[in-house]
Amino acid sequence: MMGSLRTIALAILAISAFTFIALFGRLPAFRKTPIALLHRAVWIYFPNGVAYLDSRLLGGRLVRTWNRSGSYILHENHPLVLIFFVGLLAIGEWVFLPVAWPRMSSVHHPWVPPVVIIPYILLYKCVMTNSHVTPENHNEEMKRYPFDQVLFHPGYRCSTCNLIKPARSKHCKFCRTCVSRQDHHCVWLMNCVGANNYMYFMSLLLSLSVLLAYGTCLGYSLLRQSLQEMIPAHLQAAMESWIMYFNIWAIVIQSDPRIGTITLLMLMTAPLAMAFLAYHTYLIWAGMTTNESSKWSDWKEDVEDGYVFKAHRKDIPDAHPFTDFNEHPWPVTSDQLLVTDDEPPLEGYILVPGTNRIDYRSDEDAPIDSRWVPVHSMKDIDNIYDLGFWNNLRDSAGLSVRRMGRK
Ligand SMILES: [Zn+2]
Ligand SMILES: [Zn+2]
Predict the structure, then answer these.
(1) Alpha-carbon distance 315 to 319, whole Å?
(2) How many helices (H) and strands (E) are present in the chain, helices listed first?
(3) pLDDT computed for residue 235 by the predictor
(4) CA of 133, nearest ligand number
(5) Which region holds residue 182: left if phi is over 0, alpha if psi is between -120 and 50, else beta?
(6) DSSP letters spanning 137-175
(7) Hey, which end of the chain has fewer CB within 10 Å, N or C?
(8) Is residue 2 pLDDT above 90, yes or no?
(9) CA distances, 23 to each of 14, 176, 305, 317 (Å)
(10) Residue 53: is its pLDDT beyond 80?
(11) Residue of 255, 283, 222 lying closest to 100 (CA atoms)
């Protein structure tokens, strides 16, 4: 009896941990941590290991079969994860609510329906709202953000869509189109999270966190009632010891299995939803998308290696201008120019247009160009897309932002 419960709990915990690592392990915050290593193990080392064994033992037959079915799973926009996600939600509610409803105090009755229904509405909005860049809206999308010439440079054409890429957009190979203010492609939603559905996505994370936290508390209070009724007082007093504590809860969950299992499931998945919500709140605070956060951490590594140099735009007359600042007023401007190289720019360098690289016409040793200074900290680099938390929040919701002056 104890054993099977422990197995279920461990299985749920293992699935939650695996999901967390598989989904979030790539995030820059986990670089150089065991989580990133485990993420690589899941996505790179394990598949490579299987492919190696397969080529040695089976002549590559397994990989060919996998590619026929597996490439569908990994590279196509398919609904399996969405179905799993909705299924888990619906089955959990179907198991929990009919037994919990009559037992819960009536003060909860008005709250439960909205808490249950709102995530479905937001999920629908997330899935159905796209942020595709199309020939029809391209002009407008180009005006949405200026090019910062750090992460985004003007003049790059998407070879698939045959459109100039707007600043902060990214081509999504799953959606097969460029996506405006692309945050990430979400397999749970079968859609990119971008300019038009980011607020639905944040609201979905919030509503799921509320659902799971509220459900856990409700489930706990019902199980607590069962415990009071079932367990004699002298045994309840013995719950001071950890072993008795877990044993008694195991008995309660076994005797109340519908509420017990779903409460356990909610308890273990609530941190996932909240971690995701917290991470996106951090991104809004920092003024970046998930896509940009990995670009910024590349910059951070270059800064740490001493490869980034900065100059004032007014001192470099031949620098390509921020074309869009004239066309499209943005609340902040910046006069920074950044280049990356393994040594300071020497006099006579050429700025390679549309990049942060420099080049030289000749190999001659020239003196260091004193207009460029090394960047020692990310604090010395302007992120023109960061307008402060509230304006970032308004901007990510597609609302207008106040004029702010110089960054
Ligand atoms: Zn594209
Ligand atoms: Zn996508």
Answers:
(1) 9
(2) 14, 13
(3) 83
(4) 1
(5) beta
(6) THHHHHHHS---SSS--TTPEETTTTEEPPTT-EEETTT
(7) N
(8) no
(9) 14, 21, 29, 45
(10) yes
(11) 222
Tokens coding 309: 């140099």
Distance CA 190, CA 326 (A): 37
Average pLDDT rounded to a whole number, residues 380-403: 88
Distance CA 200, CA 195 (A): 10
Distance from C-alpha of 100 to C-alpha of 222, rounded to nearest angstrom = 8
Tokens encoding 33? 């941590």
171 Cα: distance to centroid of ligand 1 (angstroms): 4
- Cβ(357)–Cβ(119) under 8 Å? no
- Domain ranges for the chain: 1-76, 77-131+181-287, 290-406
Looking at residue 203, its pLDDT comes to 97
Ligand closest to 171 (CA) is 1
Dump pLDDT digits (tens) for 106-141.
Answer: 999 999 999 999 999 999 999 999 999 999 999 999
Q: What is the mean pLDDT of the chain?
A: 86
Amino acid occupying residue 343: E
Distance 176 CA to ligand 2 centre (A): 7
Among all bound ligands, the one having the nearest atom to the CA of 192 is 2
- pLDDT surpasses 90 at 375: yes
% of the chain exceeding 70 in pLDDT? 91
Interval 30-44 mean pLDDT: 79
Q: How confident is the model at residue 84 (pLDDT cuts 50, 70, 90)?
A: confident
Closest CA to 188 of 118, 287, 273: 273
321 pLDDT band (50/70/90 cuts)? low
Nearest-CA neighbor of 297 among 23, 28, 39, 34? 28
266-315 tens-digit pLDDT: 998 898 899 899 999 999 999 999 999 989 999 999 999 999 999 998 88
| Exposure class string for 253-287: b at 16+ Cβ within 10 A, else e | beebeebbbbbbbbbbbbebbbebbeebeebbebb
How many angstroms is it from 122 CA to the middle of ligand 2? Answer: 18
Q: What's the pLDDT score for residue 406?
A: 47
Active site residues: 186
- Distance from Cα 162 to the centre of ligand 1, integer Å: 7
CA 254 – ligand 2 centroid, Å: 43
- Any idea which ligand is nearest the CA of 193? 2
